[in-house]
Amino acid sequence: MSDEALAAPACDEGHRERPRPALSPSRAADFKQCPLLYRFRAIDRLPEPPSTAQLRGSVVHAALEQLYAMPAADRGPGTAVALVDPAWERIVAAQPDLVDGLDPEQQGQLLTEARALLTGYYRLEDPTRFDPQSCEQRIEVELADGTLLRGFVDRIDVAGTGEMRVVDYKTGKAPPAARAFAEFKALFQMKFYAVALLRAREVLASRLRLIYLADGQLLDYTPDLDELLRFEKTLIAIWRAIQSAGTTGDFRPNPSRLCDWCNHRARCPAFGGTPPPYPGWPDRQQREPAA
């Protein structure tokens, strides 16, 4: 799922063993951006109020998932728009606190924008002309060194000849100062999925597709095997660095222009704050630091 969409709420698993810590594309990007941000999100799991853009992204993703569950002939623009309200109702029913502080006017604007994004989608792709193999596909694979990759792919298309296309929807616009990082993060995410699918299915993705609904742009990228093998080593190195920091609790801040959009500046030493006591590196009996 895209970065704009909300992550599923953590489950209370009672006495069952929780999944082991894993690397996700979002948390890997967090660590590269700022190790302390990774800690706040993945280990401390500090709450972050959802933005309107995140809520809108969740609605659009949910509507597209439902759209592709229908027969191809029924996937017209009117159907997509009609799926917005039911998608919103499901999201609110699952997590009522997400809409705290959202007044009726803001809610109406959010849903109007979601409908506009879905209408614009038809200028980029025609969903009546193909059937995806899967939508919102959970992927989990262990690399040779033991690094566990975990994430959700918006859509996977497989042609009759076997070529695989990995698709991700982007529903928000990055601020100008953060646009270059947002583009890097998006491509990083797609390469992450390509590596995970390469190891899980032994198939090299022939195309990575980013669909920017807010901008009305479509970006296709063709990875090669050597590139993905090098990227796999990068992921392994990131995970080893995370584990090393997790052992000592030494997750240092990395101040940048992106700090302007961080929810945790009040706790960051770079801005005079104090982080909460380090809770320790999660193990199988603790909550996983994943996406």
Structural overview:
This protein has 291 residues and is an alpha+beta fold. The protein has a domain at 52-121. 40% of the residues lie in helices and 13% in strands. The protein has a 5-stranded mixed beta sheet with strand order 1-2-3-4-5, with helices on both faces. Strand 4 and strand 5 (217-221) form a beta hairpin. Helix 1 (25-33) packs antiparallel against helix 2 (35-43) and helix 3 (52-67) packs across helix 6. The longest helix is centred in the C-terminal third of the chain and has 24 residues, at 225-248. Residues 1-16 and 284-291 have low confidence and may be disordered.
Classify the beta-strand content into a percent band.
5-15%
Count of beta strands: 5
The end-to-end span amounts to 10 Å
Averaged pLDDT = 88
Instruction: Report the major sheet.
Output: 5 strands, mixed
The largest sheet has its strands arranged as 1-2-3-4-5
Structural class: alpha+beta
Can you tell me the residue ranges where pLDDT is under 50 for at least 5 consecutive residues? Answer: 1-16, 284-291
Spell out the helices and strands N to C: HHHHHHEEEHEEH
Provide a brief overview of the structure.
With 291 residues, this protein is of the alpha+beta class. It is built from 8 helices and 5 strands, in the order H-H-H-H-H-H-E-E-E-H-E-E-H.
Produce the secondary structure layout.
Elements: H1 25-33, H2 35-43, H3 52-67, H4 77-82, H5 84-94, H6 104-121, E1 134-142, E2 148-158, E3 164-170, H7 179-201, E4 207-212, E5 217-221, H8 225-248
Parallel strand pairs: 3-4
Antiparallel strand pairs: 1-2, 2-3, 4-5
Helix pairs in contact: 1-2, 3-5, 3-6, 7-8
